[in-house]
Amino acid sequence: MTFSYLPLFIIDIFGSVLMIILSFACLLKSIRLRKNDPENVLISFLVWICSGLLLFAVSRSCGHIVKQLLLIYGYHHIWEDIRPFSGSVNTFAFILVASITIFFRQIWKIHIQVLNDRKKLVDAHKELVFLNENLEKRVRERTLKLEKEASQRAELEKHMVQAEKLSAIGELSSGVAHEINNPLGIILGYCQLLLRHEKDTQKIDDLKIIEKHVKSCKAIVQDLLNFSRSSKPLKKLYSINSIIEEITNYVKTHSSFEKIEIIKYFSNDIPEICIDSEKIKQVFFNLIMNANHAMNQNGKIIIKTTCENENIRIDIEDTGEGIKKENISRIFDPFFTTKPTGKGTGLGLSVSYGIIKNHGGDIKVSSSLKKGSVFSIYLPFDNSCIINEV
Amino acid sequence: MKKTTSICVITLIILILFPDTSYSIQAHGGSEGIVVHQLGHIFFLFSLLALGYWLKSKWALKGKSKLYLRLSCLFLVLWNFDVIFMHFLDEQTEIINVLRSGFEISIISTINSNSLEYLYYFGKMDHILCVPALFFLYKGLKSIETEKEVK
Fold first, then answer.
1. Is residue B139 part of a domain?
2. Is the pLDDT confidence value at A288 over 80?
3. Using CB atoms and an 8 Å cut-off, which of residues 71-130 of chain A contact chain B?
């Protein structure tokens, strides 16, 4: 049967040209994809496939176009010479594409395995980082806890040393005071008896000097006895503000407070707490008297009450000389005093410290030389006396 | 050592003095070229079938890109079937004869089969199959690019 060769010719020529154009477009597109995602194995595979198909399309299409042209112009023999090369390149090209396709499956499997392994590594890395961070956090927390414990232990040891000192001095002073108190009482009694009957002025003056010093000795002995007989506080509900008010009213009547201004800042939300009012009064009295001495009877005493973390805080501030740095750690020691001989026993702060500790509270001091000192008393919100009464 | 050297020297002398055809390298003439070409097409066909199957199930492609790549595989498979058959017919000169003269082509079946003649004529238009294959490959690549941009 005879057919028109024109459709075959047109399809062959146009098809070949389209093959070249499309294979080029595919290669360029795949290269562009790989530029955007260079680690994608699938796209790398497509680049290789497109390269193989381009080689195939160009060799085959050029062969077809050349063939058609040579056959039209009657150069049949030339085509016969070229034909084996064109066919061989074609065969090589599509075998190459087929090989890439077949072997890519294995590459894909390896790629998936690598991805899985990488995921596992990333997961393991994340876990390690988490553990590492957590470990650091735990070590930090533990270190802080240990530091806190060490500081608490040091504080406790300090308190124990203080308590031991107080105990030892208490025992000693109790014995001494007891033995001296009675003879002093007798001396004072006889001295006052002699004073009553004596007419000689010189002797009266001598006896008064004796009486004065015996009274001074008795005061010291009384302080010692107060210090050593630290009985359990008898707690009742009291308002701290009203106790301070009472004490300040009392001290204001004293002649040494004439040039001293007492300023009070009372917080209104201070609750009543269980305290031994007499002992707490003694503490406030001691601190206010110390402030007075520190200011040489001229200056300001500022008393503040506030609530702070389940405690009542009472600050007693003066504008006196302040305490020297080397003395700060010793001011609560019994018999430590910076006052001149005969002016103080060095027991006031020590006794105050013991009283506050017996109330479950704390007493702290901060001081600046030439500016003044602040004594801060912390008393816990204690309502145990109400529960005991019930 | 001396014994081995002596044997080698004697063998070399014998080979030089009495030469003959060795047949060590096989010649590749005749129909071997077409057989290799056809085997290549079968290999290509098989790889495309495998690729189409893998694309269906396992690979990380979804949506239009996957569809276009599978269509590309399908057209290349059909093209391979076509060219394998046409190469086969070209070799069967005892059943089909082709004569071209200018812009006319005579296809004569010696077994008087018109359908075989038509089949040969239309089978020669293989670009109808391979051009769409490349077109769908291009569309597939473009879809991958679009899907990545959307991501």
1. yes
2. yes
3. 71, 84, 87-88, 90-91, 94-95, 97-99, 101-102, 105, 108
Please answer yes or no on whether B131 and A15 come within 8 Å at the CB atom: yes
Domain contains B27: no
Tell me whether 0.85 is exceeded by the ipTM. Answer: no
Average pLDDT rounded to a whole number, residues A339-357: 77
The pLDDT of residue B1 is 67
Average pLDDT over residues B50-76: 84
Q: Nearest by CB to B141, which of A7, A26, A97?
A: A26
* CA terminus-to-terminus distance, chain B: 73
Strands A311-318 and B96-101: unpaired
Q: Cβ B47–A97 below 8 Å, yes or no?
A: yes
- B85 at interface of A, judged by CB pairs closer than 8 A: no
Q: What would the mean pLDDT of A31-38 be, rounded to a whole number?
A: 90
Q: What average pLDDT does this structure show over A166-171? A: 72
Nearest to A283 by CA among A224, A351, A367: A351
Q: How many CB atoms lie within 10 A of CB A254?
A: 13
- Per DSSP, A5 falls in state S
A119-143: burial string, b at 16+ Cβ within 10 Å, e else: eeeeeeeeeeeeeeeeeeeeeeeee
Residues in B touching A15 (Cβ below 8 Å): 126-128, 130-131
The answer to whether residues A29 and B68 touch, using CB atoms and an 8 Å cutoff, is no
Domains in chain B, number:
1
Please judge whether A33 and B47 are an interchain contact, meaning their C-beta atoms are less than 8 angstroms apart: no
Q: What pLDDT score was predicted for residue B79?
A: 94
The answer to pTM > 0.80 is no
**Residues B2-19: tens digit of each pLDDT:** 788 889 899 888 888 887
Kindly state whether residue B55 falls inside one of the protein's structural domains.
yes
From residue A173, alpha-carbon distances to A33, A95, A176, A229, A354 in Å are 97, 114, 5, 10, 15
Residue recorded with tokens 């093959």: A19
CB contact under 8 A, B50 and A95: no
Distance, CA of A150 to CA of B64 (rounded, Å): 70
Residue B62's domain spans which residues?
32-150
* Region class of A297: left (phi > 0), else alpha (psi between -120 and 50), else beta: left
CA distance A133 to A303: 49
B7 lies in some domain:
no
Nearest alpha-carbon partner for B70 in B79, B61, B82: B61
* A residues 14..43 contacting B (CB < 8 A): 14-16, 18-19, 22-23, 25-26, 29-30, 32-33, 36-37, 42-43
Query: The tokens 């005493």 sit on which residue?
Result: A301
